[in-house]
Amino acid sequence: MDKIQIKNLEIFANHGVFPEENKLGQKFVISATLYTSTRKAGKTDDLTASIHYGEVSQFITKFVQEHTWKLLETVVEQLAEAMLLQIPHLEKVELEIKKPWAPVGLPLETVSVSIERGWHTAYIAMGSNMGDKKAYLDMGVLGMQLTKGCIVEAVADYLATEPYGYTEQDEFLNSVMKIRTILPPHELLDRLHELEQEANRVRVIHWGPRTLDLDILLYDDLILDDEELHIPHIEMHKRDFVLIPLAQIAPWVRHPVYNQTVQELLDRLK
């Protein structure tokens, strides 16, 4: 991915743990690496097809001066989020904020915090087999649309399927949605659990009836396994009610473990 760099932008602002830092203020130095595609702008000489580094510099300055936080970590985290949400064509940003002559009682030149944040593509499985199933799936989609830092890009057709695992229950309505998100995986999982709770989801029987079930299937090409989360979803390659709707909106996406496309996994399952 192409990069546009802004180095050592000097800003006078009011951030710090001590009250006098918030009142009197001091100089901060910010560097930003903006990841985007410059191909179209380079071929057309059209500034609107790229990122205007002058406007971005003004954006950074205004944002940092209009807020007051104690920690550099908060400044740079909030700034990165605001940039990703408000600057067109920005796919990823690396930020470094330096605080010269930080008041630590020792002769140091500067302290700094650096982070990298960006947009990610995730696929979310949806299922319901209680009450108004379509309404619950619609609720899940709307909930993601209203989630800060998430954009719903596609939703597969709703598919009626027989129950999986525990079979003594009503048939399911299933689907998959594609989202773009700046949320890291565990924060995305927390948000999905919140949406399930809003739908009065009760976890009593494993694979049992539920008003709304939301699972992360894929998150970029990430492979993650811990106590709370498995990406890719460990059962997705075995489930036609996942692969059929996923193949409708993303047949070319490749499973990062099995190195097969979604369509190939579905054909193999059939």
UniProtKB/TrEMBL annotation:
PROSITE patterns: HPPK. GO terms for molecular function: 2-amino-4-hydroxy-6-hydroxymethyldihydropteridine diphosphokinase activity; ATP binding; dihydroneopterin aldolase activity; kinase activity. The keyword Cell cycle does not apply. It holds the Pfam family HPPK. SUPFAM superfamilies: 6-hydroxymethyl-7,8-dihydropterin pyrophosphokinase, HPPK (SSF55083), Tetrahydrobiopterin biosynthesis enzymes-like (SSF55620). It catalyses: 6-hydroxymethyl-7,8-dihydropterin + ATP = (7,8-dihydropterin-6-yl)methyl diphosphate + AMP + H(+); 7,8-dihydroneopterin = 6-hydroxymethyl-7,8-dihydropterin + glycolaldehyde. GO terms for biological process: folic acid biosynthetic process; tetrahydrofolate biosynthetic process. Pathway: Cofactor biosynthesis; tetrahydrofolate biosynthesis; 2-amino-4-hydroxy-6-hydroxymethyl-7,8-dihydropteridine diphosphate from 7,8-dihydroneopterin triphosphate: step 3/4; Cofactor biosynthesis; tetrahydrofolate biosynthesis; 2-amino-4-hydroxy-6-hydroxymethyl-7,8-dihydropteridine diphosphate from 7,8-dihydroneopterin triphosphate: step 4/4. Transmembrane segments: none annotated. Coiled coil: none annotated. Residues 206-217 form the 7,8-dihydro-6-hydroxymethylpterin-pyrophosphokinase domain. SMART domains: FolB. Signal peptide: none annotated. The keyword Lyase applies. Keywords: ATP-binding, Folate biosynthesis, Kinase, Lyase, Nucleotide-binding, Transferase. Its EC number is 4.1.2.25, 2.7.6.3. NCBIfam families: folB, folB_dom, folK. Catalyzes the conversion of 7,8-dihydroneopterin to 6-hydroxymethyl-7,8-dihydropterin. In the N-terminal section; belongs to the DHNA family. Belongs to the DHNA family. This is Bifunctional folate synthesis protein.
